[in-house]
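Quarterly update from the structural biology core.
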Amino acid sequence: MSTDYLAAQWLLRQEQGLDQAGEIALQQWLAAHPSHQIAWTEMMDMDALLGQLPASQTTALSRDVRTQLTTRTSPSFWNRCWQRACNAFPQMAIASCAMVVLVCSLLWFDQRQPQYQQTFTTARGQFISQTLPDGSKVELDTGSELRVALYSDRREMRLLQGQAMFHVNKDADKPFHVLTDHARITVLGTQFAVRNINEQVNVAVKEGRVRVTAFNQREDQTSGTAILQAGDAISLLAGDLSAIKHIAPEAVACWRKGRLTFDNTTLADALAEFERYTPTGLSIAYPSLAKLRISGSFEVSKLKQFTTALPQVLPVRVNKGRIESAAPIPPSKT
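Predicted structure, tokenized:
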């Protein structure tokens, strides 16, 4: 980032009002290198020149710049901005035009900088609930990581790992997006849950609607879109969308109530899910047993209930931490 650009940033910050810490930081920046003082002086001079323009002309340019910003123009806009500034103010020196373009660039840059950003993580067995500055609420499951960035024109949540439940405060001017490597979930006013574990993304809606867009990273393009209503759920694996299935809205993100719900889940996956929350000390004796499927709802904190239930629903027994066949069978050759 150029020294002139940094000087323009400091000028705008000063005009917006610096607190004592900001004034100290400005003075430290000016003293850090002789070029900083030179750039700052030139920026102040150009700002004074621009201040001599009639208010009608500065208002018109400001309106034009902000219109261009809100349409998310390409970088070629800055070439047009330069031309318009110099055409609009022929009585001003080229330096003044440069100042206009620099401020335009700074406004564009600031729009793409988050007004709030934070990363939330949870350790094994930990849960957190966080209210964001926009009034939305996020509940984060165990072993999860979420990066939050609130911009002037949008809200972005990047779920890097784990599960999260979102209660979105509606704001039509600032769309709410949840991003993973393979999907973008756009809120249309809702409460919904997102799971991102082992490259598979699951989305379930409790209330309202969301739009789920799948990404094919290899081809760098979208590979499908689905609109989910309350009680809808969908999965994405490697950028491919599954069919929409229907669930009870109250079953969405049941981990918030300390429960795990399995629906035709393999024994291996069910055990792995318990392991996300706490060490189980369990192992599966044979690969063939790992493929057995189980359905049901269990309390995360009561592993013993799960192991007690296993022999009642599957042909297995639990012996000193090993899940074995109820009847001895030879190990699989595969």
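The two ends are 58 Å apart (CA to CA).
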